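Q: Please design a sequence for this.
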């Protein structure tokens, strides 16, 4: 796979949670943690003139439903010159326990 600046994202954020480490076009592997109250997450990449696929679906936003545990999101970027870059976000969904006292 050839890499080029044209196949890089200029930014990427999540609708819930934060990327770790902070986004850089040169870093391709990220993690994020959300609670079980979060049932879906959207990846919001920004690009100049490339094509983006999130988990295989073309578009700049895709809502992803995930389950407890570890979930992987793949963001593929293809530049007009044919160069490609892949970013990976590993989202961990941690269950929160809510205790209700009934009187």
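A: Design:
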């Amino acid at each position: 796979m050839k890499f080029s600046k044209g196949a890089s994202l200029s930014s990427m954020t999540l609708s819930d949670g934060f990327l770790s480490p902070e986004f850089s076009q040169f870093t391709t592997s990220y993690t994020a943690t959300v609670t079980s109250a979060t049932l879906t997450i959207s990846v919001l990449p920004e690009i100049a003139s490339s094509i983006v696929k999130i988990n295989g679906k073309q578009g700049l936003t895709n809502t992803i439903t995930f389950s407890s545990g570890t979930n992987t999101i793949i963001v593929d970027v293809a530049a007009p010159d044919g160069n490609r870059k892949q970013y990976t976000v590993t989202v961990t969904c941690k269950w929160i326990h809510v205790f209700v006292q009934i009187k």
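Q: Thanks. Anything notable?
A: The chain has one domain: 5-94. The beta strands are 11-14, 29-35, 40-46, 51-54, 57-58, 62-65, 69-78, 84-94.
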